[in-house]
Structure formats: C-alpha cells, structure tokens
Design goal:
alpha/beta; seven-stranded mixed β-sheet; about 20% strand; binds N-(iminomethyl)-L-glutamic acid; binds fe (iii) ion; Metal-dep_hydrolase_composite; zinc ion binding; iron
Amino acid sequence: MNSSGSKRTLWHNARLATLAGDQPWGWLPQGALITEGEQIVWVGEASQLSPELSASIAQQRDLGGAVVTPGLIDCHTHLVYGGSRAHEFELRLQGASYEEIARAGGGIRSSVAATREAGEHELYALAAQRLQTLLAEGVTTIEVKSGYGLSQAAEAKMLRVARRLAGLGLEVRTTYLGAHALPPEYQGRPDAYVKALCDWLPELKREGLVDAVDAFCEGIGFTPAQTRQVFEAARALELPVKLHAEQLSDQGGTQLACEFGALSCDHLEYLGEAGIRALQASGTVAVLLPGAYYFLRETKLPPVQALREAGVPIAIATDHNPGTSPTLSLLLMLNMACTLFRLTPEEALRGVTQHAARALGLADRGQLVAGQRADFCIWDIAHPNELAYYFGRNPLRHTVRGGQLRN
Ligand code: NIG
Ligand code: FE
C-alpha cells in the first residue's frame, strides 16, 4: 500500500504504445505501468522504476511481452435502434442510391418507425448485444447518438437506453441528434420541426440525457440555416456541438460547426478548402468513417493529405448504424482507414484513442500517461501496426478499464 492506503498494481513485461512523447507510437518496448484505483500513476521503461516506486506496489502482473495500447474509443455510433435495413442494402445493390431510398420514405425514416415501435427493454437488449461485439475488441468508451426517435418521448427513450449501456462496464457519452431526419408528422414543415426539436432540448438535458448535440446537415437532412438554429439552442444550454458534415455534398456545414467551436465534424468526404481552414482554426477534430464510405460504395475520398498538412486531428469511428454502416468492428475500421483513406497504421490507432477522446471532449483518456484513466488493451501481437494490418482477426487478450481487468 502507498501512503494514501490505496493499492497499486504494476503491469510489467509490456511493450507500450503510449501515443505520448516524440517517439513513433510513443513506443516503450520494455515498458511498465503502475495503476492506482482508476488512474495510471506511472508509465516508463521498467529499468527506470525507482526503489521508492517499487516499494509502493501491492501487486504485480506480468504481461508476457504483450503489446499494450490505450483503450479503444468509438466516438461516433448510432447503436440504439429497432429493425434492420438489410432489404435496402439489396435495393442499393440493384442500383438504387442512398438518397433515392431516403427520398422515397425509406432510409432513416424506416428505422424511425421501427424504433418508435420498440419498447425500451427491447431496444436495450438489441443495443447491448451489439455492444458486446465492440467490447470484445477492446472498446472502453463509446458515443451513442439518438436520432431514430424524432419525438421528445422517443428521443428520450433512445437516450435512456444509451445511458443504461454504461452498466456493461464502459463509459457512454450521449449525443442528441434530433436533427437527423424530418419525421412524417412534420412532412413539408421542416422549420416547425427544427423549432420543436430545439424546444425538447432543455428537458432532455435536465433529465441528464445529453452530453453533446449533433445534426445531419445535408440536402436530404437539414440546411445550414436550420443547423444554426440547433446549434444556437445547444449553445444556450452550454452543450458542445458536433456535425454530420459534407457526407454527400459540400454544404459548408463544417465552417458553421467550427463557428460554434464544434468538438468534431464527421464524414467529410466532400470537405473543401474553406472547411479545412475552419477545422484548423478551431481545433475541431475531423472524424472519418470508412465503414459508411465503403458500404455506400462512395468514390469521393475525404481530403486526408490536406487535413494532415493542416494539422487537423483525425479520428476514426464505426458510425455503426443500420443504413450506412452496419459494422461492429472498430479494428476493421483501422484497416479500412489505411487501405481506403491512406492513413498510416499509427494515425489510425491515434484516431481510435487520442483523437477520438478529443472528439468527445474527454481530456482524461486516449494516451498511456500518468494522470489519465487506467483504460487499456492488452494485445496478442508483436507490434501495434498489426492492429491495422489484420482484418477479421481479433487479437485482444484483455481489456483493463478503470484499473480493473474486464475480460
Ligand atoms: O452517419 N448520415 C446520416 N446518418 C447516418 C446514417 C443513418 C441511417 O441511414 O440510418 C450516418 O451515416
Ligand atoms: Fe453517423
């Protein structure tokens, strides 16, 4: 025990990808970590452990030379919904576009009907099952959006389900996406719907259901002017904003979001020069979603090299949703971020740890450094570049969350 009476654990014989410092990967090939409670209290080369530190250790775990990375963070998901959209996938394979299906009343609207129909227990069971797959790959923090309810009661239902998922042993950040699509009862009255969804926000926040506010700014979603109204409502409640931006066309949503100091702008295939400059100036994270790019058979690549040159932090997420990205593998997204978007394996790993944390406004995780949460993954690989190299293989040995071995 140390002076505060709390037990310290030494995790040693580890190859650490700390993602901190100047070395590629923040690599410490003969590394060790000390945790106390939920925190990391020391990280370094095992040879640098001082006698005083060694004396404070209550228990030790030999990791047998395994690679250790920060816990994975999936910073963009729509994990809670009813129904399936597999039939739309078939329609798209026959030539229909995502936009055509949406305009014909399918798409998001069909998930809205199924989500409204589903009871809270059923929604929870479905989402919990999906979450198990993500947890099995080392996800320790996840963001979950609403946006398939589109009424105050159904949005609240989705967000309550998202909150309950935290009981499965990870941190859940909730994002209110009332501005996802126009519900049928507001057909032809988009401005009235935008007013309504803004009016629901104070109560949803009071119920403790909202950590951030998002919108779908797109030809088939909401205009920049409507998105601005949503952001004004968020700002009035001091809630941070994010945006589904430039996914199918360049609407200038990114510039608007950056004007509001957005945590992140997500998708970004059609992002132009002005948007890149705006991200650079506001320090907003660019969240790239290779699953949606792949599943929609998009051909326009996000401007990765320009983002890199501008020093914009790039995160990667699953965007798990029934319409455009039904994947439950964040590791597969690492591979796709490299093969499809030409990120380096190191950039991809930073994208699901360090930069994903920032996209959620979480400063206490994403790297292995003293003071951060003790959330980390222990992998059966020799080098962290293998996380992006394999696809369809899960080399996770254990997850540690808040200093506790979880699986
Ligand atoms: O992130 N772009 C809008 N929202 C989701 C798709 C939702 C759906 O089709 O159900 C996305 O790709
Ligand atoms: Fe999304």
